[in-house]
Design a protein that fits this description.
By secondary structure, the protein is of the alpha+beta class. Helix content is about 35%, strand content about 20%. The protein has 6 helices and 5 strands, in the order H-H-H-H-E-E-E-E-E-H-H.
């Protein structure tokens, strides 16, 4: 059963949820490589094609805007510039019904972090990291927020000192 059909019919139960497959995200390469940049562009282009029309879920969903795609691209490029190979895995990509792009990371022991970014550069995150709930709304202002790096480093056992020492602003324009 497709998610759209289940939601439309409002008959979604736990056994049906297990059958629903999320948007397939290709296996991503390590950060800070040409292949990583290609993966970002390809993934965001797929989202743009699928979710840029109004009411894409047949329930009134907002369309994905080019500004949201650009903000997501900048955030992923910045994340790639501060992460070392295999320290912080790539996120799963998705779109919220409000038109925000969502990045989801899943760690061990039910740990997770979900980050959504809007056209205005507002970043909302929520998750379960290091045994506690974390959540906030912040503005990215062209740079990756330190609190997000901290949560990702904690979630995946990364070395925050390394991540801090390799930070530099590398936001760019999405080549779509």
């Amino acid at each position: 059963m497709e998610l759209r059909t289940a939601l439309k019919n409002e008959r979604l139960n736990i056994s049906e949820v297990a059958e629903i497959q999320p948007w397939p995200v290709p296996q991503s390469p390590a950060f800070s490589t040409a292949a990583w940049n290609d993966w970002i562009v390809d993934g965001l282009e797929e989202l743009r094609k699928e979710y840029s029309r109004p009411d894409w879920d047949a329930l009134g969903a907002e369309p994905l805007s080019s500004a949201t795609v650009q903000n997501a691209y900048s955030l992923l490029i910045e994340l790639g510039s501060v992460s070392s190979k295999d320290r912080i895995p790539s996120p799963e990509l998705g779109v919220d019904v409000d038109g925000d792009i969502v990045f989801d990371w899943f760690g061990e022991n039910c740990q997770n972090l979900s980050v959504s970014i809007s056209a205005t550069g507002s970043l909302v995150y929520v998750g379960y990291v290091n045994g506690r709930e974390v959540h906030d709304t912040i503005s990215i202002n062209g740079a990756l927020p330190e609190v997000l790096l901290k949560h990702l480093a904690t979630l995946f056992g990364g070395n925050l000192a390394f991540i801090r020492s390799s930070r530099h602003s590398s936001t760019g324009t999405l080549p779509l």
